[in-house]
Design goal:
One of its GO terms (cellular component) is membrane. Keywords: Membrane, Transmembrane, Transmembrane helix. It is a multi-pass membrane protein. Its main location: membrane. This protein is α+β, with helices and mostly antiparallel strands. The chain is built from 28 helices and 21 strands. The strands form five sheets. It has a six-stranded antiparallel beta barrel. A hairpin with a 6-residue loop joins strand 12 and strand 13. The longest helix is centred in the middle third of the chain and has 37 residues. It is elongated, with a radius of gyration of 40 Å. It starts with a helix and ends in an 8-residue tail after the last strand.
Length: 828
């Protein structure tokens, strides 16, 4: 009960802080922009045809290149001081730049293959039937024991050696051709002209239509359209000339009434299925007779590939058994093949109907053979149900990459400046960082599922995912965020004089370096999850709405930890919180590798409350604690670059290649082991080394003096400067070296007087530097004096960074102002 009361008391007390209301609104909108689009970018790349390796490369390189900007933007912000206009512009430009991704063309599309495969059927004599399949639609052969086959049309296959694509297109769109038959022995000749209406011809499908419905279709005009059987062989329907039929032998009456060659005997073909190409007898009034769509069962086996098969780009299958009627299989014998004394010719006129009604070329072919077109279910003959069609992949990749880098540069700069502004405002207002991030979690809880629902709604009825609502919503929120950033107050933030030196003085701290290494590993784990979790959910069959709900679950679970992050970090320490984050990342990653139901991801997404909400809050406040007022934006920019830039990029790149090499589930387990091992090493390093170093008292935003790990009441080596209260009141604004600390107001009674011996030493040090201190004219205001005396008051730049001034003593008449300085390196 006490914990619940404390929970709500902290929220209510912080919400009453009017100066922080703009910050809360910005956190709400800013987090909404992050989760409304970024989690979906990986599957957006997948939709554009960018494969897993290219996604990994892009997700890795983009943040690494973009990370150059956050530190530079942070340094620029520290140098400028009041940078809210610049922050607003960067936020707005980032939203508008995201719309450029909608202009990226599709590089590859994954399309469904037709439900049935098309083959041509020929006679192999006593060896049975032979089927041939062209390689227009790829088929990874996987023959089932029984294949349901259906005869669609019969005609002639003729060889035409045409290489010109325009002529090939004209052949396939031909509506008129003539077939001539002549008997060499008898001299009998016959000519039949075939002509078809435009409506009987297939309509050519455009690339836009294919991208829209993502499914290939067969040319189902089997009886009226010319089709390509192989590289140089074409099929011309001729259903009025003959058809294909089979009979089951063993019954004398069947053999007597059959049209088999007289040389075939009952003895040879008994207990076999006898197939033949029978001439069609057209009776009066039956001129429209066509082939019956007869279905039967076949047993196929893949024939050995010959050089001609490779040259003709075809695949052949042999059928020795079939069940023409019923379920009983019999061996096949094919009678009445192409007669040696019969000659079949083809005359084909090529038209360009858009230019002229007269043919522009006439082609002739000899030696045509009888064939029929048959179809069979794809799932009984082929293992692949989809194929990839490539367009200009290079343009897609580099265009998307360039825009992502541009957006990353702007977004990284916005992050660095915004985090710097947050820390500066919280220092000024003595507020808690975790309490502000609550509203960011609420924003992500609302925006991510909303974006998923809008994407699902826009994609309904389409064979592809329509991401436009997410981009439009992202742009609108970024523009709103830019307007809200104009409402924050940064007038109090003074510009830094030498940002680079200030930053390097902080980075020399081993504790800061250890923090950055820990954030890099945490960012690597986070980057892999962010890049490929939605990929996993999609592979498991989850919807875009579920993807959005995962963000909501993580946000809801993270709110209590954000509220209590301050007390938790104060109780167990920053480094220990980061170690807990490592452990929970290992649990999350291992859990993802074990699930098969996409909804089970919600269980492990709830752990994001620790891995992201609590751990990253601890990292940000840890960095704020180790930095100074003049380096807030710079250090936060570096932290963001390490976590969201290099770390995320490494996670995406390494994860993508590991997925390619080992698979999805083993990769999750590899990352789990990595985070657990690294977290353990960081914990040992913290216990064995960092805890023995001098620590800084106070909270993460308002710092007291440094304390030594061995002597908690002692000071670091250095000097203590004591000046008169009157002088310090006048020169207060000129001292930019310290951090204002109101915490000492409540601790006045705990201040112990300085001993006489220490006072004597302090006076000696004071006298040595007192002549170099210029007094502040009484009539001059504090603001003007700051600008005039900024370069002169910095007696020692290093002392400025490591010192702390306490204005609380100014309210006590008999108190002195104390500046704790670190002993210069050259004096050690």
């Amino acid at each position: 009960m006490m914990l619940i009361k404390s929970f709500f008391r902290r929220i209510i007390k912080d919400f009453r802080h009017k100066e922080l209301l703009p910050l809360k609104m910005i956190f709400f909108v800013q987090a909404s922009t992050l989760y409304v689009l970024y989690p979906y970018l990986t599957i957006h790349m997948r939709e554009l045809g960018i494969n897993v390796e290219e996604t990994a490369i892009m997700s890795a390189i983009t943040p690494v290149i973009a990370m150059v900007m956050p530190p530079l933007a942070g340094m620029l912000a520290d140098r400028v001081g009041n940078f809210k206009i610049m922050l607003s512009l960067f936020s707005s430009f980032g939203g508008l730049a995201s719309l450029l991704l909608l202009l990226v063309p599709i590089g590859r599309i994954t399309v469904e293959l037709p439900d049935r495969v098309v083959m041509d059927l020929g006679c192999a004599g006593n060896d049975g039937l032979i089927y041939a399949m062209s390689e227009d639609y790829p088929c990874e052969t996987s023959l089932q024991p029984e294949i349901s086959t259906r005869i669609e049309s019969c005609g002639y296959a003729c060889r035409l050696d045409v290489r010109n694509e325009a002529e090939i297109k004209s052949i396939l769109s031909s509506r008129q051709y003539t077939i001539g038959r002549s008997n060499i022995e008898t001299g009998a000749n016959s000519t039949i002209k075939f002509s078809f209406a435009r409506n009987d011809m297939p309509r050519e499908e455009t690339d836009e239509e294919l991208r829209e419905h993502r499914k290939l279709r067969n040319n189902e005009h089997y009886r009226t359209s010319v089709r390509r059987l192989s590289a140089a062989e074409y099929f011309f329907p001729a259903n009025r000339l003959y058809d294909f039929s089979c009979i089951v032998s063993g019954f004398v009456e069947d053999l007597e009434t059959s049209t088999l060659d007289n040389a075939m005997s009952n003895r040879i073909y008994e207990n076999r299925t006898l197939c033949t190409f029978n001439p069609v007898v057209i009776h009066e009034g039956d001129a429209s007779r066509t082939t019956n769509y007869h279905s039967y069962k076949s047993k196929l086996k893949l024939a050995d590939e010959t050089e001609e098969d490779r040259r003709m780009k075809r695949r052949r299958y042999l059928s020795n058994e079939m069940a023409w009627t019923g379920k009983e299989y019999q061996r096949i014998a094919c009678g009445n093949p192409d007669l040696e004394n019969e000659r079949v010719t083809l005359t084909l006129s090529l038209f360009n109907y858009s230019a002229s009604p007269e043919p522009y070329e006439v082609l002739e072919a000899e030696g045509c053979s009888k064939r029929c077109i048959v179809t069979a279910p794809r799932n009984e003959t082929c293992s692949n149900a989809k194929t990839i069609i490539e367009y200009n992949v290079g343009v897609t990749f580099w265009m998307y990459f360039a825009i992502r880098v541009f957006i990353g540069v702007i977004g990284g700069s916005t992050f660095a400046m915004f985090e710097g502004a947050v820390i500066a405002i919280l220092r000024e207002q003595k507020a808690d960082y975790g309490l502000q991030r609550i509203y960011g979690s609420i924003g992500s809880m609302i925006s991510s599922p909303l974006s998923g629902l809008l994407i699902d709604y826009a994609s309904s009825g389409k064979s592809y995912t329509d991401f436009r609502p997410a981009f439009y919503l992202y742009t609108a929120l970024k523009l709103i965020s830019g307007l809200l950033m104009l409402a924050i107050n940064l007038e109090f933030k003074s510009p830094a004089s030498n940002v680079v030196r200030d930053v390097f003085s902080v980075l020399r701290n081993v504790e800061v370096a250890a923090l950055f290494v820990a954030c890099f590993i945490l960012g690597t784990a986070w980057g892999y999850i962010e890049s490929f979790l939605f990929w996993l959910i999609q592979d498991l069959g989850g919807s875009r709405s579920l993807m959005g709900i995962t963000i909501t679950v993580g946000g809801i679970a993270g709110i209590p930890l954000l509220v209590l992050s301050g007390p938790i970090v104060s109780k167990i320490g920053h480094a220990n919180v980061l170690f807990i984050g490592f452990v929970f990342y290992a649990i999350r990653l291992c859990g993802y590798s074990l699930i098969y139901n996409p909804w089970h991801t919600l269980i492990f997404e709830a752990l994001e409350s620790v891995t992201q909400s609590l751990s990253f809050t601890a990292a940000v406040t840890y960095a704020a604690r180790l930095s100074t007022t003049t380096t807030d934006s710079s250090i936060q920019g570096l932290l963001g670059g390490v976590y969201y830039g290099v770390g995320k990029g490494a996670g995406s790149l390494i994860g993508g290649y590991l997925m390619k090499a080992f698979g999805t589930r083993p990769t999750y387990r590899i990352f789990a082991a990595m985070t657990l091992i690294t977290g353990t090493m960081y914990y040992v390093f913290n216990v064995a080394y960092l805890k023995k170093r001098p620590q800084v008292e106070g909270n993460d935003i308002v710092k007291k003096k440094p304390k030594n790990a061995d002597n908690q009441n002692g000071l670091e080596n250095g000097t203590i400067e004591i000046g008169s209260l009157e002088q310090r009141k006048k020169g207060e604004g000129s001292d930019l070296s310290g951090i204002d600390n109101q915490t000492f107001v409540q601790e006045r009674d705990n201040v112990e007087p300085v001993s006489e011996k220490e006072t004597k030493l302090q006076r000696i040090d004071t006298e040595s530097i007192d002549d170099g201190v210029e007094r502040v004219p009484p009539a001059e205001s504090r603001k003007k004096f700051d600008a005039k005396r900024l370069s002169k008051v910095q007696i020692d730049e290093r002392a400025k960074q490591n010192g702390t001034t306490n204005p609380s003593f100014e309210n006590q008449e008999n108190s002195c102002d104390i500046t704790v300085e670190r002993q210069p390196e050259e004096k050690k």
